[in-house]
Amino acid sequence: MQKLGDFKLPQFFNYPPYFTLQPIRETREKQIQLWKELILEYCRSQKIFIVGLDEEFSLFSNQSIERSLSHESRVVFLSALVSEGRAEWMDKSHKKCLILWLKVQDWADYIINFVKENGLEDSVMTVEDIRSGIESRGTELAGIDRGVLIRALKLLEQKGKAAIFKGSSTDDEGVKFNI
Amino acid sequence: MAASAWLPPADLTDSGRPVLFPGEVERLFLSSIDLQAEENPSLPPLRSGFLTLTSHRLLWINDNSRFAHFIPLGSVIHAFPPKKSIKNMFTSPKIRIQVSSDSDGKIIGGKGATSVVITIVMRGGKSDPEAFYGKLWEVLKSRSWEVEEVMGREDVGEIRVSGSVEGTSRVRTAVVGVAGILRKEQEMWESTDKSLQDAFQDLNALMSKAKEMVALAEKMRQKLLSGSAAQANANDEEMGSKQEMQDWLLSVGIVSPVTKESAGALYHQQLSRQLADFVKLPLEKSGGMIALIDVYCLFNRARGTELISPEDLLQACALWEKYEVPAMLRKFDSGVMVIQSKAHSDEEVFARIISLAQKPDALKMGISPSDAALTLGIAPALAKEHLLNAESRGLLCRDVSPDGFRFYVNMFKEFELGNIYLVKDHGLYKAWISAASLASA
To answer: Where in this chain does the record put each GLUE N-terminal domain (chain B) (predicted)?
Structure first.
């Protein structure tokens, strides 16, 4: 089986029509669904949060069959993710796309669980701790995009489950959980 | 005396083709021809060569195309028709022409002091003397070389059609290819036109009567048409008799030659029927479907001079709806129009395409329109239409790459959402994987 990094690729990744935007509606629907799923799975496994349309994204090409997605197809698939709420355009010109392989709400839930499981209810953690601390290793939180993390924390803050406070510099933003 | 002493030599290209004068067009080509001056034995004959009748000359090329001579048609005073007699039945047919020459028997252009009679002997048994004579006469009548002389004098200077013995006939670019064909068509038209004019002079009076008849028929037809439009609910009987009236008018009306002005609706009706008959055989040969543009070419080529316009063709096809004709006009989404035999079935074509697309090679590499054309036995443009059609039904999907435009059997249905690694034990997906993996590293 082919791999991209340590991500196992499905067999249909070698099916050439998979890389051509299909004109027939029903076929295209299926194709879009498959790409959405593949993008999310891949980004999750490789902890990729941002896909740049003008940049190389290894999932969008298959060297062994010499096919790549056209710019148009990339826009179509990413836009489909955006419509479903699983991604967001980071700029007006739609050049960069934030992939939410977990939705912000899902992240918030994940953090709650994480805090509970590690007994961190009363401690104060910095944002960076959550991202790269010892407890985070092996969890989805390791290496999470800062922007996404903060949004999730803010969501928790709104629900009264956390409190964010600034330190002397941005790196020192801290969180206290009230679960 | 060498042959070049009495017949001017003609220039040949490196590959043995005659170099034609501007505007000169070949008309007939015969092989195994002798040219001899029967009455002047001192003039050496030319044996067993190719004879080409052009609009300007009679060219004789020797059998390995190394040298050639010609007789300018402008010097031909008379051509004697081939004689049919018991004596001639067992010998090679001969056609005699009287050609202007100087006193030594040399053929030069223009009016010579005297003339020689040259016999064209058709050996080889394949030539048709009547056809040759007919063509020769046509060409002599049309006098194309004179027209050329007048036209070309300004720009090329002196055009020497007759060419003297010293070979000063210049090598000019021959007018061949499409221009030559068009000229040929034009000339054929003109000569047909002229002969029609001659023949019909006596019938002018009859023609004017016919015109009146046609005008009457048209008037009545218009009345019928306006009548039926005014009556919203005509009962069956009335409609029946109106139809009869129309048919009768059409069948009685038109006595003049079939032109659109005189015939009106009848022209298209006849054309439509003729077309339906004509199209039967080509349809069979090409698997039940031909592109309309191909029918246009085939039909016009078969008709020869009375060419029809694209609009005529379209109208003729449109009329098929009215008659029991086993052919129909069909327009694809891409705009391509074809004539299709009613027996043709899309489903049957799809079945063949699918089976082609599921062969191991096709699973691995897909199929291109030319692959499909080869297998289905049809033109590539039509094959592409079929493939696109199959795609629109969800049977195939496309692969567009720098390698080209290919189609694969549609396997998207086999891939499972939520379970992207799943491959069922049997089925298309599995087959595809085996076929595809045989090649890749």
So the answer is: 10-152
